[in-house]
Design a protein that fits this description.
Blueprint (H helix, E strand, L loop, with lengths): L1 H15 L15 E5 L5 E5 L6 H11 L4 E4 L2 E5 L2 E2 L2 E2 L2 E2 L1 E6 L21 E6 L28 E2 L13 E4 L10 E3 L2 E6 L13 E6 L5 E6 L13 E3 L2 E5 L5 E5 L5 E5 L14 E2 L13 E2 L7 E3 L2 E5 L5 E7 L3 E8 L13 E5 L2 E7 L4 E6 L5 E6 L13 E9 L2 E7 L8 E7 L5 E9 L3 E3 L2 E8 L6 E3 L5 E3 L3 E6 L5 E6 L11 E3 L2 E5 L12 E6 L5 E6 L14 E3 L2 E6 L3 E5 L23 H23 L1
Parallel strand pairs: 1-9, 10-40
Antiparallel strand pairs: 1-2, 3-4, 4-5, 6-7, 8-9, 11-46, 12-13, 13-14, 14-15, 16-17, 17-18, 18-19, 20-21, 22-23, 23-24, 24-25, 26-27, 27-28, 28-29, 30-31, 31-32, 32-33, 33-35, 34-35, 35-38, 36-37, 38-39, 40-41, 41-42, 42-43, 44-45, 45-46
Helix pairs in contact: 1-3
């Protein structure tokens, strides 16, 4: 009897202690199959049951319009996409069964009998790397601008109308939020830059996992050991792991559910050069001060994941490929050091197919665009994407985004390399040789292209004609605003004027026939800044526009909206994340200073714990008195 009382007491204490809470077991009403190409893109389809797992996969995907090639009891390729060897790591198509609350370990042998339930097939390097979408939370946003090609395309949807005030917002004392907002399993992941005007823990960059229900912090981890470091990079989700590169040159592998650091990498390299941006140092290269001597200390760019391999650039101008797992750690596959060396900063490489070859595309602050073989890192071609030095510029300029768009082409944006650019271009590049198909003189956001239409925010460039070609072939003045362009020609389909400038690094997000964009300018400029805009993708007409509150004089935004599950998640330099949905939030009194209220033992969770403890003690005392 005493043991029973103690067991009840322990159970009550466990229930009372606040902590991590998982979703209830279960799945969607009807079993589904998930196709995950291992690069951030996935889609759900109806199950067509077969007698074996392989028959079920083939029948389900072929009914959905995909082409599946098999050999024996394995899937060789889907839509021509097959496994690739990166060093000692070999990717393949793995199948996963849904256990009710998680995916089972993957297997390539699909001969076993199919007994029902949801399944997933994923192109990856190991069955321990699981897909991040689940029947409980089918929507994901796993990397910078959605997937490893940075397309800015969501397979989900936003709210029909934006309710005000915003459903919730979360504020931080550890700096600005300039990273993409990743989403999986109902959690949002992002970094803060570090608060360089503060001291102690707040001065360091941090990585956060917060709840998408209310913005509450699930866990956080401090990044780096340099309080002067400013981290802009976004994390990337790889199965149950979270990977982030820092501005001090470290790469971390986290358990994304607990926040535990599993592995750490510090790549070696040389001094960078050919950059002009804030937070720079000077140095000499071969006895000569390189192009003014200013270099960005950006550390690691955003990371692209493809077939279980990692691709990223470093501030010494080197493109790198690694594999990783929690047990063996990071393993370098190759590194590419271009002759025209320039800092690689912020935007990630793009991995795509050109013919039968998998290639990696990466630009630099030397104004160069490089195309290398993804398997061995050998150079395929390298071309100058922008070169401003003949016109008297201090720097050649920089490649600021590369987005493959199909037909073996990519949209490439370039700028003059300054923090606030005055000159830039948007071009369509032939990936077979790097030649230009068309080009527009404009300062462009990272482009979004779907079904042959490009969506961008363009600003006039100080160089060039100041003109843009309309759909009928006539010339029109290029002005500030949103544009829809034909991808094959660059001609204007529609134009929506807007003086609320959008950051070049942010870009537009497409979801369910709508476009979502965050103003770069601060909330102090409202209605000409500090807001989020939703446009109809077919017409360019405004659907809704809301102001982000709270805000400050410096609440600039460099973050593309994340559109998932009826939510639009955005962030800015106020040090805040906002959730816009069709559910109104609660108005809270705010000030320009962000402060956390430290409640200590008076927090509600501790009050509940102490009350529960008192009840347990009282019950135990009465029991023993009665014995």
């Amino acid at each position: 009897m005493k043991a029973a009382v103690m067991a009840v007491a322990a159970l009550l204490l466990i229930i009372a202690i606040p902590g991590f809470s998982a979703a209830e077991d279960g799945e969607a009403e009807e079993p589904s199959i998930l196709l995950d190409t291992g690069d951030g893109w996935d889609a759900w389809y109806d199950i067509v049951p077969g007698s074996t797992l392989l028959e079920t996969v083939v029948a389900s995907l072929e009914k959905s319009g995909h082409t599946v090639e098999t050999s024996g009891d394995t899937v060789v390729s889907i839509d021509g996409l097959s496994g690739t060897a990166f060093g000692t790591s070999q990717s393949a198509w793995y199948a996963y069964g849904w256990s009710g609350d998680s995916w089972d370990a993957g297997r390539t042998d699909m001969s076993e009998r199919y007994t029902g339930g949801s399944i997933a097939v994923m192109l990856t390097a190991s069955g321990t790397i699981k897909t991040s979408a689940t029947p409980l939370y089918p929507d994901t946003w796993t990397s910078y601008r959605g997937s490893q090609t940075s397309p800015g395309i969501s397979g989900s949807h936003g709210p029909g109308e934006a309710a005000l005030p915003v459903e919730w917002y979360a504020t931080y004392t550890t700096g600005n939020v300039d990273s993409s907002l990743l989403y999986s399993d109902g959690f949002v992941y992002h970094t803060t830059t570090g608060n360089t005007s503060s001291y102690g823990n707040d001065s360091f960059p941090h990585l956060y996992c917060i709840s998408s229900e209310n913005g509450s912090i699930v866990w956080s981890q401090r990044l780096d050991s340099d309080p002067e470091a400013v981290t802009l990079a976004s994390p990337v989700i790889m199965g149950d792991w979270l990977i982030i590169g820092s501005c001090t040159g470290h790469v971390y592998l986290f358990d994304r559910f607990s926040g535990d650091v599993l592995r750490e990498l510090v790549p070696d390299g040389d001094e960078p050069f050919l950059a002009d941006i804030s937070l720079t140092d000077t140095y000499e290269l071969d006895g000569l001060e390189g192009m003014g001597g200013q270099v960005v200390r950006g550390g690691i760019t955003n990371i692209a994941v493809y077939s279980g391999a990692l691709f990223f650039g470093t501030d010494d101008g080197t493109l790198r490929c690694y594999t990783v797992d929690p047990y063996a750690g990071f393993d370098e596959v190759w590194r590419f050091c271009p002759e025209e060396k320039g800092t690689m900063y912020f935007h990630p490489p793009a991995v795509t197919k050109v013919g039968d070859r998998t290639v990696v595309l990466m630009g630099s602050y030397a104004g160069m665009l490089h195309c290398v073989d993804a398997v061995d890192g050998s150079l395929i071609w390298s071309v100058p994407a922008i070169d401003l030095t003949p016109e008297g510029g201090r720097y050649p300029g920089s490649v600021s985004s590369v987005v493959p768009v199909g037909n073996e082409t990519a949209l490439v944006t370039c700028k003059d390399g300054e923090m606030s650019p005055f000159t830039g271009t948007l071009s369509l590049i032939d990936l077979k040789d790097g030649s230009r198909i068309w080009s527009i003189d404009a300062i462009s956001t990272a482009p979004t292209c779907i079904e042959g239409i490009v969506y961008v925010y363009l600003s006039p460039s100080s160089a060039g004609s100041g003109k843009i070609t309309a759909e009928d072939g006539s010339e029109m003045e290029l002005d500030y605003g949103y544009y829809a362009l034909w991808a094959d020609s660059g001609e204007v389909i529609w134009y929506h004027a807007s003086s609320a400038t959008v950051s070049g690094s942010a870009g537009i997000t497409f979801a369910d026939g709508r476009l979502y964009s965050t103003d770069y300018s601060s909330g102090m400029q409202w209605p000409y800044g500090g807001g989020v805009t939703c446009l109809d993708a077919d017409t360019g007409n405004q659907v809704w526009r809301v102001q982000l509150e709270p805000y400050s004089r410096s609440s600039y935004s460099m973050v593309s909206p994340t559109v998932v599950d009826g939510m639009v998640l955005v962030a800015n330099d106020y040090g805040a994340v906002y959730c816009i949905s069709d559910t109104p939030g609660v108005i809270r009194e705010v000030t320009g200073d962000i402060r956390y209220e430290i409640t200590g033992i008076f927090d509600w969770s501790w009050i509940m714990l102490m009350a529960a403890t008192a009840c347990v003690i009282l019950m135990a005392a009465r029991f023993y008195r009665g014995v």
